[in-house]
Amino acid sequence: MPELPEVEIIARQLREEVVGRRITQARVLWDRAVQGMEARAFEADVAERAIIGVGRRAKYLLLTLGAADGVAATDDSAPAAGSAMPTDLAANVTDATNDADERVLIIHRRMSGNVILVGPDELAAGAEAFDPYTRVDFTLDDGWHLVFSDPRKFGRVALITPDALPAYFAAIGPEPLEAAFTAEALSARLANRRGPIKATLLDQSVIAGLGNIYADEALFRARIHPLRPANSLTPDELRALRDGIQGALETGVAHGGVTFGRHRDIHNEAGTNLAHVEAYQRTGQPCLRCGAPIRRIVVGQRGTHYCPECQRLP
DNA sequence: CTATAAACCTGCTGGC
DNA sequence: TGCCAGCAGGTTTATA
């Protein structure tokens, strides 16, 4: 469900709403939602920590938590809205006076996960009553709750020390919305890839943050057939693809993410990007450029939508 | 190393 | 109306 734009939306909202709040309690309702440690240990280590920063890397949501002694570390490196990149976290790591006591709470929503901020009134009957798919329930010091809901149970939370961040993301490719993501950089990432470009765009070690929707959208914008070998693109096509990737993602962010499916923002509201999707799930409907019916094929086990006229194989 | 398939889960949709 | 196969926006693991 959530790809880069949907996670970015959540990160921005959380930055406005929960930075400065303290997590008084963490309750894991489905133990396997916790990655890398026992659920009870996770609960114990999260409790009484203040949220001092919010970031995003790829499709991962990152909440920097202060020491649990009740005195939150000063957040001199609070990320500005819209720049929740690893550089901010790196700054946190180097600037903080007591990083050894800090933690990074990592949340990945996978297919069906949502992170929702819920008021005390709504939660009066309990998190399970509010949402039967609640997997982790964080109580904040102002009485609100951060609820991680996930029907399909694919989503995961993890808690690591800041110095473990580089290793955690060692296998994740570059952020496509950063200035360094040029056509040349994209070309280098695709150089040894002979598989179909659509499948390669979904490989998070090649590029971070693209999922099935935005991969289709990026290829549609760039007029590139999804089955083209990734390393066969011309310089012009590489430029078009870079622009297509950034354009599709930025459009997604601008409209709060996709409308269909289960994606919700932290206020449990759907996004409005449905009207701005040009290829994804438009099978049989006319191409917005040429009118030809959009076709659906399967590439790398994933449904793939493209215009057979605008996106041709050579 | 690259590439493909299966596995992890549950809910929803469409066809019969 | 009711049932069931098939499908779903992601990642990890196992196998070629």
Q: Which spans have pLDDT < 50 for at least 5 consecutive residues?
A: 75-96
Rg of Cα set: 20 Å
Query: How much helicity do the residues have?
Result: 25-40%
β-strand percent reads 15-25%
Distance linking N and C termini = 32 Å
Class from helix and strand fractions: alpha+beta
The helix tally amounts to 9
Describe the 3D structure.
With 314 residues, the protein is α+β, with helices and mostly antiparallel strands. The protein contains nine helices and ten strands. The strands form two sheets. Strands 5-7-6-1-2-3-4-8 form an eight-stranded antiparallel sheet. It has a two-stranded antiparallel sheet with strand order 9-10. Strand 6 (134-140) and strand 7 form a beta hairpin. It is globular. Residues 75-96 have low confidence and may be disordered. It binds a DNA duplex (16 and 16 nucleotides) through helix 8.
Highlighted features:
single chain; 9 helices; 314 residues; alpha+beta; 10 strands; DNA-binding
Chain-wise SSE layout:
Layout: H1 4-17, E1 22-28, H2 39-46, E2 49-57, E3 60-65, H3 86-95, E4 103-108, E5 114-118, H4 127-130, E6 134-140, E7 145-149, E8 156-160, H5 165-168, H6 183-190, H7 197-202, H8 212-222, H9 235-254, E9 295-299, E10 302-306
Antiparallel strand pairs: 1-2, 1-6, 2-3, 3-4, 4-8, 5-7, 6-7, 9-10
The chain binds a DNA duplex (16 and 16 nucleotides) through helix 8.
